[in-house]
Amino acid sequence: MVEVRGHGFLLAQYVPGNSLIHRTPLWLKFLVVAACGTASFLIVDWAVSLAVFGVMAGLFLLSGAGFKRLLGSLWMVTPILLAIGLFQWWQLGGPTAARIVLNVLVCVVAASVLTATTPVQELLDGVVSISKPFRRFGADPERFALTIAVMLRSIPFIAGAFADVRDSARARGLERNPRALVLPVFITTVAYARQTGDALAARGLGEADDATLGQRRE
């Protein structure tokens, strides 16, 4: 049995509470996240991006999720944003680099506000409701929500597997050996994927697709 470890994740996990943010309707939270994503393409002034980031960080703290969780969400993307920021600063200058980095941070914090104040099941039910109008185009809202659920469960596991393998390799003095890092993570991830697939198949998920595929072949 592959164990899911409690390592950090890009987005903050749900924190029970009764704050104003917790009681905000889910559709409004979705709207705020979508607005932040859209704004990241429209904002051209880093000072505006900084102000929006401050507002979203304030909402996160207002929810009672805690400053430590906020830092945890930001820390996960710090190495990537540092590389992006340095490259953009070299190519386009400091103000543009700051705007791009801050816009990404705004999106991360906005999504973290959503996940920190909404139970996973409620979040998935909301995804199903929002996706229902797309049934006419052949979309399956339930499977879409299931995909998100599997993703939310899998990414922390993979991150945890890498952290465990890295610590083990460091203890053996092999932290600079790519094989000692990549191969165990690959094997563990494949085992986890097969276990997840078996669990879904045991619940009858995927059988409809197989039947449809068989009809098409006939």
Automatic annotation (TrEMBL):
It is a multi-pass membrane protein. Keywords: Cell membrane, Membrane, Transmembrane, Transmembrane helix. It is found in: Membrane. InterPro entries: ABC/ECF_trnsptr_transmembrane, ECF_transporter_component. The chain crosses the membrane at residues 50-67, 73-90. Its main location: membrane. It comes from the Bacteria. This is Biotin transport system permease protein. It comes from Paenarthrobacter histidinolovorans.
